[in-house]
Amino acid sequence: MNGIAMGGEAVGRALDGAEGAYVAVDFDSLAEDEVMAFMPEPGGLPVAEAEEVLVSVRQRTRVLGAGLTAMLPEERNVEPASRLTAALGL
Of 83, 48, 52, 46, which is closest to residue 68 (Cα–Cα)? Predict the structure, then answer.
């Protein structure tokens, strides 16, 4: 397969046979109207869609830990960060 695989099926393939996963969530990749990120990317993923992906990770394997990066220290980020960590069962 060439290129970068994305979406739920790609997550499933990446986790096949995994006994656990560390999940990195980069706030730069999320919708800039929902989070305050260091260097937001245009067309970022809505937080609700990111939650769905993270729930699918949790359903497929044990989540060993997670890191949230590029998140500015703004009150506005508390709620999305809480939602995303809850989606992982943390």
Answer: 83
Question: What phi, psi does 27 have (nearest 5°)?
Answer: -60, -20
Nearest to 88, CA basis, from 11, 34, 5? 11
- Closest Cα partner for 47 from 89, 86, 11, 81? 81
69 has which bridge partners? 26
Q: How far apart are CA 32 and CA 55, in angstroms?
A: 21
H helix intervals, the chain: 8-15, 47-60, 78-87
Per-residue pLDDT, averaged over 6-26, amounts to: 87
The predicted-structure confidence for 31-55, as pLDDT tens digits, reads as follows: 999 999 999 999 999 999 999 999 9
Whole-prediction pTM: 0.88
